[in-house]
Amino acid sequence: MPPITIYTKSTCGYCAAAKDLLRKKNAAFEEISVDGDSAGQQAMSERAGGRWTVPQIFIGDRHVGGCDDLYALERAGQLDPLLAG
Questions:
Q1: The model's pTM
Q2: Residues forming beta bridges with residue 62, ordered by sequence position
Q3: Segment 9-55, tens digit of pLDDT
Q4: Residue 6: strand, helix, or coil
Q5: Where in the chain are the domains?
Q6: Into which CATH architecture does domain 4-84 fall?
Q7: What is the DSSP string of 18-76?
Q8: Is pLDDT above 90 for 85?
Q9: Between vectors from CA 74 to CA 56 and to CA 43, what angle results, nearest 5°?
């Protein structure tokens, strides 16, 4: 399984939903909180092609996007192969 990184904020419902789906898939992930961390959020934005909202999800070197993007991959049957590497 490729490494998974998810940038989050503690008050973000979309972050919680994305983490829930990854947990249901038994996918271990590194969570990076950007709560009150403007430098961390800037670094996330640069890595995410300018996106400033959370969550921002990376599987391996691929930027998946946010929660809606993650669930769209799941609905399309593309998340499991991506998680398998």
A1: 0.94
A2: 59
A3: 999 999 999 999 999 999 999 999 999 999 999 999 999 999 999 99
A4: strand
A5: 4-84
A6: 3-Layer(aba) Sandwich (3.40)
A7: HHHHHHHTT---EEEE-TT-HHHHHHHHHHTTT--SS-EEEETTEEEESHHHHHHHHHT
A8: no
A9: 10
